[in-house]
Design goal:
This protein is of the alpha+beta class and about 375 residues long. About 30% of the residues lie in helices and about 25% in strands. The chain has helices at about 25-30, 115-125, 135-140, 150-185, 285-295, 310-315, 325-360; strands at about 10, 15-20, 20-25, 30-35, 40, 50-55, 65, 70, 80-85, 90, 95-100, 105-110, 140-145, 200-205, 210, 225-230, 235-240, 250, 260-265, 270, 275-280, 315-320. Strands 5, 6, 7, 8 and 11 form a five-stranded mixed β-sheet that branches. Strands 4-12-9-10 form a four-stranded antiparallel β-sheet. Helix 2 (about 115-125) packs across helix 4 (about 150-185) and helix 4 packs antiparallel against helix 7. The radius of gyration is 27 Å and the shape is elongated.
């Protein structure tokens, strides 16, 4: 029956929770420490220094400072930094200097663990309403509070999930660096794959492909169409018609001009997105990787919204291997690296989804660890 209270649980203002959990106001869980005495201005951030600077922004550490008189000594067990303007939450376990305005320092009171409440705030985040003050909303919140041993067990389980996510992120970053290094070597001829020789040639892109304009989606868009309608941000609709049905490199005509895409199946593009008809003597995926090496901002033709013209693109010179076979071999190496990155990305997405599920179960008491 809906609303039935499970044995060992109770109904509260925040929903059904275990009988030995408490529902507490902010002031029973945290002590807010005035941060002005520990704060420095953005202009005082340094690239190196004795002490890290932490503010309310996305980056974990935004700079460094040697100003010992501004150092906040973090108590054992850590504290939580809450961004008054950004609603960003950070667990901090070391001494630090507070950066800029809006950085709130929250010290857990006895019986409450920073590790646990950091995950709880990640799970039930404060909704940002633009660049406004949000700490007042956090102060109005009620907090679900398990006994300390269960707080510790939940935090340990979720920390393990975070460690797995961090491991995947590190592997992806490393493989991206390796791919970038491989592109620098293989796409310039500095390193040759086994079995290939001969001089590379300089060619204009216009000798290898023709740049085409996309068209309006209004005349072709249908719900549930067979083919994607593509813009610079990705798919924006479906159609039963296509502009091109062969492998093609896409690049923004206006706006996002430095984010080339490779499409192998039939598609439609809108007017802000160029597509390319690639000569039969050129490996399409090879040209895609060459596009990734070009500094497109250098060819921007507008002072406002970044823009490219088809003529500008076709006049760019690129360095090419002498044979179709070497283009193919290079493209296969880099495509294999992309496949590895995609597989790792899928595993990372799964790990993040698993963590979200764990938080939903553990931080509400639906699943008990002690």
């Amino acid at each position: 029956m809906q609303g039935e209270i499970r044995p060992g649980y109770k109904q509260t203002e925040v929903g059904m929770i275990p009988e030995d959990w408490e529902v507490l106001p902010f002031d029973s869980v945290f002590r807010k420490v005035p941060s002005k005495a520990y704060q420095i201005q953005t202009s005082d951030y340094r690239e190196t220094g004795l002490y890290p600077v932490i503010d309310q922004g996305q980056k974990r550490i935004v700079g460094y400072s040697d100003r010992a008189e501004r150092l906040f000594e973090t108590p054992e067990g850590g504290i939580i930094v809450f961004g008054d303007h950004t609603c960003i939450v950070k667990l901090v376990l070391h001494d630090f200097i507070v950066g800029a305005d809006g950085t709130q320092i929250l010290v857990p009171k006895p019986g409450h663990l920073a590790f646990f409440h950091n995950f709880a705030l990640e799970h039930r985040e404060v909704d940002a309403t633009g660049y406004n003050r949000h700490f007042k909303f956090l102060k109005q919140r009620l907090f679900q509070s398990p006994p300390p041993p269960e707080q510790r067990a939940i935090a340990a389980a979720l920390s393990d999930a975070d460690a797995l996510i961090a491991a995947f992120e590190a592997m992806i970053a490393k493989k991206r660096d390796l791919k970038q290094a491989a592109m620098q070597q293989l796409l310039t001829g500095k390193t040759r794959l086994p079995g290939f020789s001969g001089e590379w040639q300089v060619k204009r892109l216009g000798e290898l492909l023709t740049v085409r304009h996309g068209r309006s989606q209004k005349e072709v868009e249908v719900a549930g169409g067979r083919y994607p309608i593509l813009a610079t941000g990705g798919e924006i609709g479906r159609t039963n018609s296509f502009l091109y049905d062969k492998p093609s490199v896409l690049i923004g005509r206006k706006g996002t001009i430095d984010d080339s895409k490779f499409v192998e199946t039939p598609f439609w593009t809108v007017d802000t997105l160029f597509y390319t008809e690639i000569a039969a003597t050129i490996v399409p995926s090879f040209i895609y990787f060459k596009f990734l090496m070009i500094n497109w901002r250098r060819y921007n033709e507008a002072s406002g919204v970044p823009s490219l013209s088809s003529k500008t693109i076709e006049n760019i010179e690129v360095f090419l291997p002498p044979t179709f076979a070497e283009q193919t071999a290079i493209a296969e190496v880099l495509s294999d690296m992309d496949a590895d990155l995609a597989a790792l990305g899928a595993r990372l997405a799964k790990a993040r989804a698993v963590k979200q599920g764990m938080m939903q179960q553990l931080l509400t008491g639906k699943v008990r660890l002690v």
